[in-house]
Every structure is written in structure tokens, then in C-alpha cells.
Amino acid sequence: MGTAQRTQRTQRSVDELLAEARAGLDRLGPAEAAAVRAAGGLLVDIRYAALRERDGIIPGALIVERNELEWRLDPQCDHRLPEAAHHDLPVVVVCNEGYASSFAAVSLRQLGLVRATDLVGGFQAWRSAGLPVEPPASH
């Protein structure tokens, strides 16, 4: 089989990759994510600063931008956050609308964080559900 044939067979769309990622997650709604946090789990907000400044933040959520996520939450990494103490830690990844967080949660699972998942609908769903949000700082 030629290289072009192998490449063609392995090409998948982002929608296919997203469906595959989500198939391995027990994704949570806003109320379920709030319950995980109340029980001692982590909500990890991976939105970039401009979105947090525009929309506010979830009180008590860890802010870890996507490009640092694996280093900050890997319990074996020297650069981990103190909260990332063990692999059985419940982690709910929050992005803006619930897309990037699915891929991020899968990445955390690959690091051994077996209870990592994400928030369906992301921050926007959290806010729409009437759950607590700290408004952006006034400029």
C-alpha cells in the first residue's frame, strides 16, 4: 500500500475526532460539575484570558490555560499545581462552549487522571444554568 493510500485511510475530520474523544468520557452537565467541585474535585478553566476578562470566572475554579494543562495537572510532573496530588482526582475541564475541553480531558486521561472529564456546554452552560460566576473586573 502506498503512502497516499495510508494517509487517506487515517485522515479524519475534527468532528470525528471529537466524537471519538467524547465517547470515552462521562461528560457532566453544570449541576453535576458543581457537585463534583462541592465534593472536593477540581473545576479547571482552560479558557484564554480574553474570555475570562469578558465573561468572568467560576468561583473556586483553577485557571490553567490550555497550553499548560498537562504540566500543571500531571501528579508526576515537577511543574504540577499543589491540587494535582494524585491520579484519582476528579477533574472537570471547562472551556467556553464544551469543545476544546473534551480533547483536554482525554489528554488528562492519557496522563492517568482516570476521573477527568469535561463540562457539556462549557462556561456558557454553567452561566446559563444560573450557577455562580464572578463578574469580570471593571476596567
Low-confidence stretches: none
**SSE succession:** HHHEHEHEHEH
CATH superfamily: Rhodanese-like domain
Overall spatial form: globular
The CATH architecture can be given as 3-Layer(aba) Sandwich
> What is the CATH level 1 assignment?
Alpha Beta
Provide the structure class: alpha/beta
| Total DSSP E strands | 4
Oligomeric status: single chain
Query: Average pLDDT across residues?
Result: 93
CATH fold node name:
Oxidized Rhodanese, domain 1
Biggest β-sheet, characterized?
4 strands, parallel
Helix percent band? 40-55%
In a nutshell, what does this entry contain?
By secondary structure, the chain is α/β, with parallel strands linked by helices.
Kindly describe this structure.
By secondary structure, the chain is of the alpha/beta class. It is 41% helix and 9% strand. It contains seven helices and four strands; from the N terminus they run αααβαβαβαβα. The chain has helices at residues 3-10, 14-23, 30-38, 49-55, 69-73, 100-110, 122-128, and strands at 42-45, 62-63, 91-94, 116-118. A four-stranded parallel beta sheet has the order 2-1-3-4. The longest helix has 11 residues, at 100-110.
